[in-house]
Amino acid sequence: MRLKHIDIMQNKLQHIFYTITAITLILILSLYSSCDNVLVWDTSACDNCVDEKPDVGMIELHFTINEKFTEVPFIVFAGEYESTDTVHTGKAITKTILIPLSTNKEFSFAAYYHNEEKTRIVIDQGKIKTYHINCGDEYDSYKCWSTPVPVIDLTFKD
Fold first, then answer.
1. CB of 75 within 8 A of CB of 89?
2. Residues 31, 121 contacting (CB under 8 angstroms)
3. What pLDDT band is residue 10 in, cutting at 50, 70 and 90?
4. DSSP of the chain, one letter per residue?
5. What sign does the dihedral 18-22-25-27 (CA atoms) show?
6. For residues 133, 50, 95 and 151, what is the CA-based torsion angle, rounded to 10 degrees?
7. Which is nearest to 112 in space by CA: 135, 80, 136, 82?
8. In the predicted model, is pLDDT for residue 156 greater than 60?
9. How confident is the model at residue 117 (pLDDT cuts 50, 70, 90)?
10. What's residue 74's pLDDT?
11. CA 2 to CA 135: how far, in whole Å?
């Protein structure tokens, strides 16, 4: 009888332990899942952070530039590909370029690879996200805004 009682108590304690662990994990994840509030473990994010939330950030575009494609026209659309809202056009003559765009908005990117026979279009989507981060150490911490540079792959793959 005592062994059965001990087994029941162990099962209840184990259930309580797992419940508390699950609730704790959910609370921790919900605290740091917001895009605007991030705890920074990598201090390199703090090197370029600013006090005010940025409205504009940089985005890096990658292209295929070679003897076959010496320049690649591209278009940046607000929202979906081929929307009527064109926000940037240009010609890439290097494999990598940086362009400024509004933060926290979705963009579509189209690169047009022309040759004698046809034009091929490479499409990608992306967004420049801002993060409100904690920097410093346990004695002197501060909050600031970080805007990592996203990479958009518009390279041509045969």
1. yes
2. no
3. low
4. -HHHHHHHHHHHHHHHHHHHHHHHHHHHHHHS-STT-EE-SSGGGGGG-BSSPPSEEEEEEE---SSS-S-EEEEEEESSTT-S-EEEEEEE-SSEEEEEEETT-EEEEEEEEE-SS-EEEEEEEEE---EEEEEE-SSSEEEEEE----EEE-----
5. negative
6. 20
7. 82
8. yes
9. confident
10. 96
11. 55
Between 97 and 16, where is the model more confident? 97
Amino acid at 57: G
Label the pairing between strands 96-102 and 56-62: antiparallel
Residue type, 18: Y
Residue 55 structure tokens: 């409205």
* Phi/psi-derived region of residue 154, left when phi > 0, alpha when psi is between -120 and 50, beta in every other case: alpha
Mean pLDDT of the chain: 81
Q: What is the mean pLDDT of residues 14-18?
A: 66
Cα–Cα nearest to 145, from 21, 52, 71, 66: 52
pLDDT digit string, tens, across residues 17-51:
666 666 665 655 444 444 444 444 455 678 888 99
The predicted model scores a pTM of 0.69
Q: How far apart are CA 105 and CA 76, in angstroms?
A: 12
